[in-house]
Write a structure and sequence with these properties.
By secondary structure, this protein is of the alpha/beta class. It is built from ten helices and 13 strands. Bound molecules: coenzyme A.
């Protein structure tokens, strides 16, 4: 066994849809502004009583069926999320129990919008080391629960969802290269000011809301997403012209267009979901992968580059053959 390989995918989107026109009634914005500045047209939002692990379970069921495996085959669960149900147990442990997966390592990965790429990279290493034979890897987010719905600078950007993949050992490629990074010097540009050991008393108040310097985030995102893409291509000895698909984090259409341009990739080779999902943070890449596979664009044997960028800043990329 030389590689790890994604053998099944699934996604879950909450029922409730908020269009840009709905947001026009909530804050001083317009459909035209949101579409032209971000590419977002609509986003899904969880119900009040719905949690991240609820969405994980639904997305995982679809991925498990797609992979043709049984829950008892799974020997590792990783959930990338910034919005876990609880501080502990972690979301992966809740998912393990709720799906009836036998006791196994259950890891919560927290790297903002890059959390899924961090989780998939970790699964890849466990599988290559022979420590896992069937990993359930999920990116999921209830980001609408931590957004300030009176702040037009941020509330128009985000949405909820979950994307899941099943990863198994394989003699055939498979994941070819991964690259992760983070630099905390950018913390002030994008962060959530409440945590378990800091400012917990602000939870549930107006002070608990995503804080972002949008245009600065934009600049670093474009530069970093170009670099992380070339980094994995270089590691794998692959030319960017060989790529069949780019599946980027779906934060903003203009960021995606700028990244594709830097890679000399036509937009026809980019899977886009930002218009329908908004920025779903950790869920955006696995959901976009699932969309591309299920509508028949992403085919077995094709070369796919997934990449993400998020608060911290954190970043990461995975190059793989489907
Ligand atoms: N509707 C209408 N006007 C809005 C608005 C909204 N929803 N949000 C901001 N504006 C206004 C601003 O107040 C500002 O007005 P002013 O010029 O009178 O001060 C104006 O639009 C321009 O703001 P600016 O922030 O310069 O716009 P922008 O072109 O940079 O677009 C973002 C804003 C947030 C869409 C863009 O910066 C972005 O996408 N950044 C990256 C964010 C991101 O991806 N974060 C997650 C990373 S994982």
């Amino acid at each position: 066994m030389k590689y790890s390989r994604i053998v099944g995918t699934g996604r879950y989107l909450p029922e409730k849809v908020l269009t840009n026109f709905d947001l026009e009634k909530m804050v001083d914005t317009s459909d035209e502004w949101i579409r032209t500045r971000t590419g977002v047209e609509r986003r899904h939002a969880v119900a009040d009583d719905q949690t991240t692990s609820d969405m994980c379970v639904e997305a995982a069921k679809v991925a498990i069926e797609d992979a043709g495996i049984d829950v008892t085959d799974i020997d590792m669960v990783l959930v990338g999320t910034t919005t876990p149900d609880l501080i502990f147990p972690n979301a992966a442990t809740l998912v393990q129990h709720r799906l009836g997966i036998p006791p196994c390592p259950a890891i919560g990965m927290e790297a903002a919008c890059t959390s899924f790429i961090y989780a998939l990279t970790t699964a890849d290493k466990f599988i290559k080391a022979g420590e896992a034979k069937c990993a359930l890897v999920i990116g999921a987010e209830c980001i609408t629960k931590i957004v300030d719905w009176t702040d037009r600078n941020t509330c128009v950007l985000f949405g909820d969802g979950a994307g899941a993949v099943i990863v198994k050992p394989s003699d055939e490629a498979g994941i070819l290269a991964t690259h992760l990074g983070a630099d905390g010097q950018y913390k002030e540009l994008l962060y959530y000011p409440v945590g378990a050991s800091k400012e917990l008393h602000k939870a549930g108040t107006d002070e608990a809301a995503i804080t972002m310097v949008g245009n600065e985030v934009f600049k670093v995102a474009v530069k970093t997403l170009g670099n992380v893409a070339t980094e994995v291509l270089h590691k794998a000895g692959v030319e960017q012209s060989e790529l069949d698909w780019l599946i980027p984090h779906q934060a903003n259409l203009r960021i995606i267009q700028a990244t594709a341009k830097r890679l000399n990739l036509p937009m026809e080779k980019v899977i886009l979901t930002v218009q329908d999902h908004g920025n779903t943070s950790a869920a955006s890449v696995p959901m976009a992968l699932d969309v591309g596979r299920r509508d028949g664009r992403v085919k077995p044997g094709q070369l796919v580059l997934m990449e993400a960028f998020g608060g911290g800043f954190t970043w990461g990329s995975v190059l793989m053959r489907m």
